[in-house]
Amino acid sequence: MFPHLEEIDTACRERLEIIEKAMMQQEGVTEALKDADQMAWVRSMNSIHNRAEEIVLAELVYC
Questions:
Q1: Alpha-carbon distance 43 to 25, whole Å?
Q2: Where are the domains of the chain?
Q3: Looking at residue 30, what DSSP letter applies?
Q4: Judging by beta carbons within 10 Å of its beta carbon (0-12, 13-18, 19+), is residue 39 exposed, middle or buried?
């Protein structure tokens, strides 16, 4: 059972990273924003992470 769980964990982490990068690009969340307005960057990143996590859970865990 552990190899299966490890495989799912790896797939989830990889998919999460891909989705987050795509959302960051679409929404213009960059290092420049981080330098200019850290709180806006943190808000955006938290939102992106939460939405991406919901997608990954729906696609890979709860399916």
A1: 15
A2: 2-61
A3: -
A4: exposed
Q: What string of pLDDT tens digits covers the 63 residues of the chain?
A: 899 999 999 999 999 999 999 999 999 999 999 999 999 999 999 999 999 999 999 999 998
Residue type, 42: V
Is residue 28 classed as helix, strand or coil in its secondary structure? coil
Distance of alpha carbon 16 from its chain centroid, rounded?
4
pTM above 0.70, yes or no: yes
Separation between Cα atoms, residue 44 and residue 48, nearest integer Å: 6
- Phi-psi category of 30—alpha, beta or left, where left has phi over 0 and alpha has psi -120 to 50? beta
